[in-house]
Amino acid sequence: MVESYSRPRFGVPREPKNQSKNLVNPGDRLMRMIDFVTASHARAIAFLLVCGALFFLPGFFNIPPVDRDEARFAQATKQMVETGDFVDIRFQNDVRYKKPVGIYWMQAGAVKTLKALGLRRAEVRIWVYRLPSLIGAMGAVLLTYWAALAFVTRRGAVFAALMMCSSVLLSAEARLAKTDAMLLLTVVAAMGALARVYLSWQRGEDPEHPPWSWPAIFWTAVAGGILLKGPLILMFAGLTILTLAILDRGASWLWRLRPVWGLMWMLVLVLPWFIAIYMRAGDAFFADSVGGDMLSKLAAQESHGAPPGLYLLLFWITFWPGAPLAGMAAPAVWRARREPGAQYLLAWLVPSWIVFELVLTKLPHYVLPLYPAIAILTAGVLERRVLSRSWLIRGAAWWFAIPALAAVLSIVGAVILRRQPLFLAWPIFAAAMILGLFAWWLYEDGRAERSLLNAIVAALALAFAVYGVVLPRLNTLFPSAEIAHALRYAVCVKPRLASAGFDEPSLVFMTDTSTLLTDGSGAADFLNQGGCRFALVEQRSERAFVERAEAIGLRYNVARRIEGYNISRGNSVSIVIFRAEGTQ
Q: How wide is the angle at C-alpha 405 spanned by C-alphas 401 and 406, nearest 5°?
């Protein structure tokens, strides 16, 4: 057994340089706030909950459904609620067997709970389906704090949690009705419990009655992760255990996880649904989820292929504002790689990161469960004041560059898409850039906490500007919302809908499960059946619609034309809402 320490040392700390007393640093007040909230666990948890709400709630309620994954998950859940079938997973008449049932149950629970509380039209409000993601993101922040306490002080744990809370990637996932934020929660819970078991062994603790709490948390979290996204959580835990076993030349500490009872408990939690879906669909779910989804990611699935190294490039954006500090912490982490705490965190991070880089299919959120390890490693180095003084400190400029780039892209995008510069967002972007500038110009390795806090507040301003102001006003990015709004004023009862050339899942979610996705000729035939019917025809399908309408003698009127942009396909769309004559 190697020598162990209560926390990673990461080298010998350095004293901070003398700063000019006349230089005003906004981070000084923030530091006093950190001193206050880190006086107790209760204050720290309350503070992190408030931060999570501030970061994740802007835009949460009023950004329309985002195509395609979010809308697919929400629509499948909506059909579960409509049919009362909580075993099968379907999108309209097609099975959706890419992921297990966990997230659908959580979303359905949110819908049914809010309907019972009296929320009108809860089943078509996308924010209801986002609630599990919000809970998952806020829970992951708190669990990052809890996991970090095994490695650093309470103060360091708060900084690790703040880096996760403010990160660009988690901020986005908290607002999407998908699996990834909740998966992050289960991974951090499992890895935090695993860390405590491992470090207790490294410290030579051999209690007469080992605690059941850590194994219970680990195996329950693993079961939750399997129900959310299949065996992915097993990869994170398995590669960590394998790496540690190789480095330590043994893994006797695994018995402290109580693997026999733990596996039995995990199977009790996950087997009932897997048995139920097997009895319903045979091996179709396993063929589609394992063969059709998971294994197909080894190739370039759905045009998301990219070479190795992409995640490392994206990291500087997706983990901002923590990314520049993580870069400065890298040399100290490497020096401490054989210390038990750093060794565990690197075993969590490095092997899985390599796997993701080698797999051809790449999406930014795949590596999200590895970010807590980076946050804790960075917090450990930050706490010991051993950040690099080499050329890596130039990365501090990134604290200003990201707000400036986000401001330019948002304003230019608003002008192009809406012909409006969205002046309301300008002061908020300006505040983000000023705070980012302070973080950069006033950076010193001995007082890096102040710069990080300035950058975190800059990230908060960006969240308000981008999610709270800009995105909800870019109506052209969400044509399905515009269509649903137009159909809401139909005079006839229970309008039925067909769509030709625009088949995004958000349209089905925001209108009706029975919406027919067809071509131009099919839309004309649908409209010709009479009754309260409307046909949506994208410009590229108009000719086929008109020719078929003339052939069958269909008389129709144009109700409205909607111009927009299909973000999932990357092209502009022009959609006409047709109605048969006499339909209001």
A: 120
Q: Is the pLDDT of residue 478 over 60?
A: yes
Pairing of strands 94-95, 516-518: unpaired
Closest CA to 452 of 382, 381, 376, 371: 382
Select from 361, 232, 366, 365 the least CA-distant residue to 299. 361
pTM of the entire predicted model:
0.93
Of 176, 184, 229, nearest to 67 (Cα)?
A: 176
**pLDDT tens, residue by residue, 380-413:** 999 999 998 888 899 999 999 999 999 999 999 9
**Alpha-carbon gap, residue 270 to 220, rounded angstroms:** 10
Q: What is the widest separation between alpha-carbon atoms in the chain?
A: 86
Element of type H or E holding 35: helix 27-37
DSSP 66: P
Asked whether 37 and 47 are in contact (CB, 8 A), the reply is: yes
Residue 2: pLDDT band by 50, 70, 90 thresholds? very low
Residue type, 24: V
User: Quick check: bond before 321 cis, omega within 30?
Assistant: yes
Could you give phi then psi for residue 561, rounded to 5 degrees? Answer: -115, 135
CA distance 176 to 126: 9
Instruction: Give the gyration radius of the chain's Cα atoms.
Output: 26
Structure confidence by residue, pLDDT tens digits, 368-380: 999 999 999 999 9
Task: Give which of 345, 329, 383, 349 is closest to 192, Cα–Cα.
Answer: 345
Query: Does the bond joining 68 to the residue before it have cis omega, within 30 degrees of 0?
Result: yes
Q: Give exposure, 197-227, as e/b (b: 16+ Cβ within 10 Å).
A: bbbbbbeeeeeeebeeebbebbbbbbbbbbb
- Tokens 């190294």 belong to which residue? 309
Distance CA 126, CA 130 (A): 7
What is the spatial distance between Cα 318 and Cα 314, in angstroms, rounded to a whole number?
A: 6
Chain mean position to CA 239: 23
* 499 vs 301: CA distance, rounded Å: 26
Give the integer Cα–Cα distance in Å for 106 and 136.
11
> What is the rounded average pLDDT of the residues 306-314?
93
